[in-house]
Amino acid sequence: MKTRIITLVTLLLLSFAGNAQIDRSKQPEPGPSPKIKLGKAETFTLKNGLKVIMVENHKLPRVSANLTIDNDPYFEGEKAGLSSMMGGLLGRGTKNITKDAFNEKVDYYGANVSFFSSGAFASSLKRYFPEILGLMADGVKNSTFTQEEFEKEQKIILDNLKNNEKNVTSIARRVEDLLTYGKDHPYGEFTSKESVNKITLEDVVKNYNDFYKPNNAYLVIVGDFETKEIKKLINSLFADWQPGTIPTYTLPTPKNVPTTEINFIDMPNAVQSEIAVINNINLQLGDKDYFAAVLANQILGGGGTARLFQNLREDKGYTYGAYSGVRQSKYAGSFRASTSVRNMVTDSSVVELMREINTIRYKKVSEEDLKNVKEEYIGGFVMDVQKPATVAGFALNMARYNLPKDFYETYLEKINAVTLDDIQNAAIKYFQGDKARIIITGKGIDVLKNLENTDYVIKYFDKEGNPTEKPAMTLPIPDGMTAEKVVNNYLNAIGGKDKVMAVKTTMMTANATIQGTPLVMTMKASLPNKTSQVISVMGNVAQKSVFDGEKGYAEGRGQKMDMTAEQIAEAKAANSIFNDLNYTAGTLVRIEPLEGKNAIVLKFKDTEIFYDMTTWLKVKEVKKVKTPDGKEVEVPTNFGDYKEVNGIKFPFSIGQKMGPMDLNFEIKEIKVNEGVSDADFK
């Protein structure tokens, strides 16, 4: 069956104009560093140890409260996910109010109240804030944990885990953390089906009683309030929150590898490679070289003007973006440079990532680079510092990290004091290109051959981060197997060639969502090659494409474009309903593992077609197409959920990935030899 999916692309153009008379032959002299005047943050501490930070701002009649429980990380082991489950169950009813009544009150006030394992959040209009803060306080102090809600939360977590079993990005992040920090470190462990099933309601209650305490917590209030009144309110709501001794855990120290190596996780369903260059660092907010590290990272990979982005996207066109970051932490910091790239340029992307990392380490940046990054960083800082929430965040950081009182007032002075030598020293210290893990999650059969030509040792890991063997690349095609036999096996699997040949027309209706917007696609086909496809958004036709056997057009956004001669020739040669009938002229190229099963791959022109060798159903097609800028990309389409219609099996689930966008179509209706007329192809 031939299925075409058309994506919607919106282009936003920004234009800037200026007519000031400026002598641009002279470079303007830099002005003095802006003077930072932070808004005043009032603080006090309750007898139970709860530390309160308040920042008044009367511009809008709103108030927010953010509770942070600043516990040290702790290892959950065989019950990984316990604290997260506890956080998910907080606020689902308390000793004083039912879950439904709680939610109804929050909705009635148009407010927001949420809970999590490390705190809680509430916001509302000023007039309702006492009631809303009261609800949050009640959930914090008096949450009840019932077996019914526990089982609901457990099912939600298990469903999410199941949905992410084949999610390449999720698995990449999970294994990256495990390899970076170690499986016995709180930052390295991950929630699994096995660990969730070992958690009991009693474990949740114990976790809450052990760790959810005020004596290591901060309550930040921001907005339109009077300090005297809010102090009284906080005392009345939180003074009876009982403190306790919080269990301690000795954190293991993460270690870098002796020399840089590639850690590869094979994901046969990956259509692009997730690449991350990671090394552990010891960096905290307030360290002497913190400011140099921040600026060095901005130059390397801090945004669209940084070196990684300019190299891998703007120059090479390998990716939609490439970035880096330094994670400061009291416990375990890290440096990470990352990107997602097409399979065919995975090895080249690794080379360019490492080249940029090593360049900034061993070659000083220019005065111009440093000047520009300071200006950009200072501009963002000055904008942020005007926000009351930023002031509150600064006050929280000063308390958590025991920073000097003038830390943020002199912040820009410290930024401006960073020298070229400071940048290089910070890059050498924190961007450890010689002791980093290059963690790649991708399709081994497509990328490993070229990766093996790099200078790095490759070690292999499974989806749980366990060491494993190199994945099988290909299997030999059985003697006597031909493209014609594969296609015949497929035709037999879907109902038999006689039934297939009896199909003259089809009509399909499918639903999908694009960027949160639901759409409906109606596809009609008539032998030998007539096709019609209409995409509707909220009842209105957004795109339409038609081929009547001789000519065709595509229409969308008020514009109509006739098919080119090349497109007409391709459409005439196709079978509008079962394109597989043409594939007998193709070539068998390999057998490769796919989703735990073997798939035989047949190549026909610019398309590879994958057939499951157990069921012989078609499970995937990968078509090479050219983008408007001339680059060649692979567009995969996955087929599943086969159901029988008029004795023939059709896929009722069709998924396509176009760049960063996933389109998943769910077929709602298929009609065979009815509902189609010549008028549909006009």
Counting DSSP E segments of at least 2 residues, the number of strands comes to 26
Strand order of the largest sheet: 19-18-17-16-15-14-26-25-24-23-22-21-20
Instruction: Give the integer mean of the pLDDT values.
Output: 90
The major sheet is characterized as:
13 strands, antiparallel
Distance between the termini: 22 Å
Helix/sheet category: alpha+beta
- Which stretches are poorly predicted, pLDDT < 50 over at least 5 residues? 1-22
Tally the helices: 19
Strand residues, percent? 25-35%
Radius of gyration, CA atoms, in whole angstroms: 30 Å
Shape: globular
Q: Helical content, roughly? A: 25-40%
What does this entry look like structurally?
It is a single chain. By secondary structure, the protein is an alpha+beta fold. The protein has 19 helices and 26 strands. Strands 19-18-17-16-15-14-26-25-24-23-22-21-20 form a 13-stranded antiparallel beta sheet. The longest helix is centred in the middle third of the chain and has 19 residues, at 367-385.
Q: What labels describe this entry?
A:
alpha+beta, 13-stranded antiparallel β-sheet, seven-stranded mixed β-sheet, globular
